[in-house]
Amino acid sequence: MKEIRTRFAPSPTGFLHVGGVYTALFSYS
């Protein structure tokens, strides 16, 4: 699962995959 998180920009806070998912959703939007 770390690979998925690495795909997106690593958040400074490290919000697990949840942060990555939210970022992806906002980016796609």
From TrEMBL:
InterPro entries: aa-tRNA-synth_I_CS, Glu/Gln-tRNA-synth, Glu/Gln-tRNA-synth_Ib_cat-dom, GluQ/Sye, Rossmann-like_a/b/a_fold
Keyword annotations of the record: Aminoacyl-tRNA synthetase, ATP-binding, Ligase, Nucleotide-binding
Single GO molecular function: ATP binding
Gene Ontology CC terms, in alphabetical order: cytosol
One Pfam family, short name: tRNA-synt_1c
Entries under PROSITE patterns matching the protein: AA_TRNA_LIGASE_I (PS00178)
Glutamyl/glutaminyl-tRNA synthetase class Ib catalytic domain: residues covered: 3-28
GO process annotations (BP): glutamyl-tRNA aminoacylation
Full protein name: tRNA ligase
Origin species: Candidatus Shapirobacteria bacterium CG07_land_8_20_14_0_80_39_12
